[in-house]
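hiii so um. not sure if this is the right channel but i have a protein structure encoded as tokens and i wanna go backwards to a sequence. like what aa goes where. can anyone help
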């Protein structure tokens, strides 16, 4: 085993797990960190897909009771069928647009400078939404997952489409979009987690199918390191975020996005770092 590559795999796995469910863009961070580590190209894409699976399993484990309840009662409970239908409705817009635009987006926007711009703009949007929430005297209209309607699910799905732009953040788009249409902060966050499961799992299977020829048996140990790192750090991240939002808003993530985005842009245009 190449220990330098193993260390890169460990670091990227931790980055994926920590950022996948926070509103700061895991894809954007993987592009930036991968560029810094000179870990790019088709093999890096296959690796990123594999470690994403670890993060997905982390959220599945955190919500295993809810998932199990929905699956087991799907044939008999109206609420379970409604919840499952709302997940499908919310996923459809991103699936459709992803199939159409995924390759052009990868060709044009999968680079650190584009990510930096998206991080910066997304941070400003979060600040605007939080300011709007602060000024509004109207409380959230949807306070449980069961109260989410088909219309609300579809609107969250439209917001999720912005996450096709690397750096915008899937979780950030769905959470902030959910809050804008009346979902309570924790409800918007949990709904975002549930949306991640079928969407990211489907995308992972599709990408692995396309890139399977890039993965050899000799790569399994490296992939395993990244996978386990993403699984553990993803679980920690999900648990932490659910506790964090009980007493905090998302402004800290907005300022982090703005600062990180500006840092990338300054280093890129000053020539301090030659981003690839």
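sure thing!! here u go:
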């Amino acid at each position: 085993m190449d220990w330098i590559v193993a260390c890169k795999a460990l670091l990227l796995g931790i980055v994926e797990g920590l950022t996948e469910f926070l509103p700061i863009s895991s894809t954007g961070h993987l592009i930036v960190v991968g560029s810094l580590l000179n870990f790019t190209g088709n093999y890096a894409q296959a690796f990123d897909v594999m470690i994403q699976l670890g993060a997905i399993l982390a959220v599945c484990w955190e919500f295993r009771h809810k998932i199990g309840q929905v699956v087991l009662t799907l044939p008999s409970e109206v609420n379970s069928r409604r919840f499952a239908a709302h997940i499908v409705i919310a996923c459809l817009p991103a699936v459709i647009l992803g199939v159409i635009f995924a390759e052009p987006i990868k060709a044009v926007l999968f680079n650190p400078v584009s990510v930096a711009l998206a991080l910066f703009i997304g941070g400003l949007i979060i600040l605007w939404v939080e300011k709007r929430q602060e000024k509004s005297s109207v409380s959230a209209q949807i306070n449980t997952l069961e109260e989410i309607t088909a219309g609300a699910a579809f609107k969250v799905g439209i917001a999720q489409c912005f996450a096709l732009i690397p750096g915008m953040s899937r979780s950030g788009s769905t959470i902030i979009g959910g809050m804008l249409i009346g979902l309570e902060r924790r409800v918007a966050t949990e709904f975002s987690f549930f949306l991640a499961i079928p969407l990211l799992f489907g995308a992972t299977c599709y990408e692995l199918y396309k890139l399977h020829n890039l993965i050899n048996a000799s790569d399994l140990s490296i992939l395993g390191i990244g996978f386990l790192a993403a699984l553990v750090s993803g679980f920690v991240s999900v648990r932490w975020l659910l506790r964090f939002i009980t007493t905090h808003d998302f402004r800290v993530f907005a300022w982090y996005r703005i600062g990180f985005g500006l840092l990338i842009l300054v280093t890129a245009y000053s020539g301090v770092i030659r981003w690839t």
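oh and The mean pLDDT is 90.
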